[in-house]
Amino acid sequence: MRRPDGDRGQVSVELLGMTPLILLTLVLMWQAVLVGYTFTLAGNAADEAARAATAAPRGGARQAACAEAGLRHLSGAWRGDASVRCSTSGYVTADVSVEVPVLFPGVISFPATVHGHAGAVEEVTR
Fold this sequence. Notes:
Layout: H1 10-55, H2 60-72, H3 76-79, E1 83-89, E2 91-101, E3 109-121
Antiparallel strand pairs: 1-2, 2-3
Helix pairs in contact: 1-2
Protein backbone atom coordinates (compact mmCIF):
# COMPACT_ATOMS: atom_id res chain seq x y z
CA MET A 1 0.00 0.00 0.00
CA ARG A 2 1.38 3.35 -1.04
CA ARG A 3 1.19 6.50 1.09
CA PRO A 4 -0.15 9.62 -0.65
CA ASP A 5 2.39 12.42 -1.15
CA GLY A 6 0.00 15.17 -0.08
CA ASP A 7 1.81 16.00 3.17
CA ARG A 8 5.40 15.76 1.98
CA GLY A 9 7.44 18.74 3.28
CA GLN A 10 4.85 19.68 5.90
CA VAL A 11 7.46 19.84 8.68
CA SER A 12 9.56 22.28 6.65
CA VAL A 13 6.58 24.56 6.09
CA GLU A 14 5.66 24.48 9.78
CA LEU A 15 9.26 25.25 10.80
CA LEU A 16 9.37 28.22 8.44
CA GLY A 17 6.08 29.46 9.87
CA MET A 18 7.30 29.15 13.46
CA THR A 19 10.76 30.67 12.90
CA PRO A 20 9.62 34.32 13.28
CA LEU A 21 7.77 33.44 16.49
CA ILE A 22 10.81 31.64 17.88
CA LEU A 23 13.08 34.59 17.01
CA LEU A 24 10.64 37.08 18.57
CA THR A 25 10.52 35.01 21.74
CA LEU A 26 14.33 34.96 21.94
CA VAL A 27 14.54 38.73 21.39
CA LEU A 28 11.96 39.39 24.12
CA MET A 29 13.78 37.09 26.52
CA TRP A 30 17.08 38.87 25.82
CA GLN A 31 15.40 42.24 26.43
CA ALA A 32 14.04 40.96 29.75
CA VAL A 33 17.57 39.92 30.72
CA LEU A 34 18.84 43.42 29.90
CA VAL A 35 16.12 45.04 32.02
CA GLY A 36 16.97 42.79 34.96
CA TYR A 37 20.68 43.44 34.58
CA THR A 38 20.03 47.18 34.47
CA PHE A 39 18.14 46.92 37.80
CA THR A 40 21.11 45.03 39.25
CA LEU A 41 23.61 47.61 38.02
CA ALA A 42 21.56 50.55 39.34
CA GLY A 43 21.21 48.98 42.78
CA ASN A 44 24.89 48.10 43.01
CA ALA A 45 25.96 51.58 41.87
CA ALA A 46 23.69 53.16 44.50
CA ASP A 47 25.14 50.90 47.22
CA GLU A 48 28.70 51.76 46.24
CA ALA A 49 27.91 55.49 46.04
CA ALA A 50 26.39 55.52 49.53
CA ARG A 51 29.32 53.55 50.90
CA ALA A 52 31.83 55.94 49.31
CA ALA A 53 29.97 58.97 50.69
CA THR A 54 30.17 57.69 54.26
CA ALA A 55 33.93 57.20 53.95
CA ALA A 56 34.60 60.67 52.50
CA PRO A 57 35.05 63.81 54.60
CA ARG A 58 32.09 66.14 54.99
CA GLY A 59 31.30 68.85 52.47
CA GLY A 60 31.74 68.98 48.71
CA ALA A 61 34.24 66.13 48.75
CA ARG A 62 31.51 63.83 50.01
CA GLN A 63 29.16 64.76 47.14
CA ALA A 64 31.97 64.28 44.60
CA ALA A 65 33.01 60.93 46.09
CA CYS A 66 29.42 59.72 46.05
CA ALA A 67 28.79 60.69 42.41
CA GLU A 68 32.16 59.38 41.22
CA ALA A 69 31.71 56.00 42.94
CA GLY A 70 28.20 55.60 41.57
CA LEU A 71 29.32 56.19 38.00
CA ARG A 72 32.53 54.15 38.39
CA HIS A 73 30.52 51.03 39.26
CA LEU A 74 28.42 51.19 36.09
CA SER A 75 29.52 49.46 32.90
CA GLY A 76 30.53 51.78 30.08
CA ALA A 77 27.39 51.16 28.02
CA TRP A 78 25.12 52.08 30.94
CA ARG A 79 27.20 55.03 32.16
CA GLY A 80 26.30 57.40 29.28
CA ASP A 81 22.85 58.57 30.42
CA ALA A 82 23.20 57.66 34.09
CA SER A 83 22.77 60.17 36.88
CA VAL A 84 23.74 59.96 40.54
CA ARG A 85 22.17 62.12 43.28
CA CYS A 86 23.42 62.04 46.83
CA SER A 87 21.98 63.38 50.07
CA THR A 88 24.40 63.58 52.95
CA SER A 89 22.51 64.98 55.93
CA GLY A 90 23.23 62.51 58.73
CA TYR A 91 21.83 59.55 56.86
CA VAL A 92 23.59 59.23 53.49
CA THR A 93 21.39 58.26 50.56
CA ALA A 94 22.28 57.71 46.93
CA ASP A 95 19.87 57.56 44.00
CA VAL A 96 21.09 56.24 40.65
CA SER A 97 19.04 56.51 37.45
CA VAL A 98 20.02 54.37 34.47
CA GLU A 99 18.45 54.13 30.99
CA VAL A 100 17.40 50.65 29.82
CA PRO A 101 19.16 49.68 26.56
CA VAL A 102 17.33 48.20 23.58
CA LEU A 103 18.89 44.84 22.59
CA PHE A 104 22.50 46.12 22.49
CA PRO A 105 23.87 48.19 25.39
CA GLY A 106 25.37 51.49 24.32
CA VAL A 107 23.45 51.82 21.05
CA ILE A 108 19.91 53.02 21.82
CA SER A 109 17.86 53.22 25.01
CA PHE A 110 14.21 52.92 25.93
CA PRO A 111 12.53 56.03 27.28
CA ALA A 112 12.17 54.04 30.52
CA THR A 113 14.58 54.66 33.38
CA VAL A 114 15.54 52.26 36.16
CA HIS A 115 16.19 53.70 39.61
CA GLY A 116 18.46 52.34 42.31
CA HIS A 117 18.31 53.65 45.86
CA ALA A 118 20.61 52.95 48.79
CA GLY A 119 21.35 54.45 52.16
CA ALA A 120 23.95 54.20 54.88
CA VAL A 121 24.24 55.60 58.37
CA GLU A 122 26.99 58.14 58.76
CA GLU A 123 29.56 56.91 61.25
CA VAL A 124 31.03 59.39 63.66
CA THR A 125 34.66 58.86 64.61
CA ARG A 126 36.10 60.38 67.77
